[in-house]
């Protein structure tokens, strides 16, 4: 004797026969959506790669400028110390 079904078991109705034309249209729409998504993702990746490259160039330029300023300030400090200590 089979076990009784669980009280929360979902009983699904029989599937409805769908026209082959409708099934083809659904699968075509799914395929086109996947292809369009792949194309769009490539576009977005290229755009964001350009943005990342720009940010990197900006950071490199800022680091170079900071290094240059740090060297200049160190030279100025040494000149000031030499002037104060009367070594010049």
From TrEMBL:
Keyword set includes Protease: no
GO molecular function: proton transmembrane transporter activity
InterPro entries: ATP_synth_F0_esu_mt
GO cellular component assignments: mitochondrial inner membrane; proton-transporting ATP synthase complex
Subcellular location: Mitochondrion inner membrane
Keywords of this entry: Acetylation, ATP synthesis, CF(0), Hydrogen ion transport, Ion transport, Membrane, Mitochondrion, Mitochondrion inner membrane, Transport
Keyword Transport (UniProt): yes
Record-level GO BP terms: proton motive force-driven ATP synthesis
Pfam families: ATP-synt_E (PF05680)
Function of the protein: Subunit e, of the mitochondrial membrane ATP synthase complex (F(1)F(0) ATP synthase or Complex V) that produces ATP from ADP in the presence of a proton gradient across the membrane which is generated by electron transport complexes of the respiratory chain. ATP synthase complex consist of a soluble F(1) head domain - the catalytic core - and a membrane F(1) domain - the membrane proton channel. These two domains are linked by a central stalk rotating inside the F(1) region and a stationary peripheral stalk.
Subunit structure: F-type ATPases have 2 components, CF(1) - the catalytic core - and CF(0) - the membrane proton channel. CF(1) and CF(0) have multiple subunits.
PANTHER family (UniProt xref): ATP SYNTHASE E CHAIN, MITOCHONDRIAL, ATP SYNTHASE SUBUNIT E, MITOCHONDRIAL
Family, similarity comment: Belongs to the ATPase e subunit family.
The name this protein goes by in its record: ATP synthase F(0) complex subunit e, mitochondrial
Natural source organism: Panagrolaimus davidi
């Amino acid at each position: 004797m089979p076990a009784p079904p669980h009280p929360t078991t979902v009983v699904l109705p029989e599937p409805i026969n769908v026209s082959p034309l409708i099934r083809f249209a659904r699968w075509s729409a799914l395929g086109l959506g996947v292809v369009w998504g792949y194309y769009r993702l490539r576009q977005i990746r290229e755009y964001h790669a350009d943005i990342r490259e720009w940010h990197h160039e900006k950071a490199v330029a800022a680091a170079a400028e900071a290094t240059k300023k740090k060297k200049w300030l160190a030279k100025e400090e040494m000149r000031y110390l030499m002037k104060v200590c009367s070594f010049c």
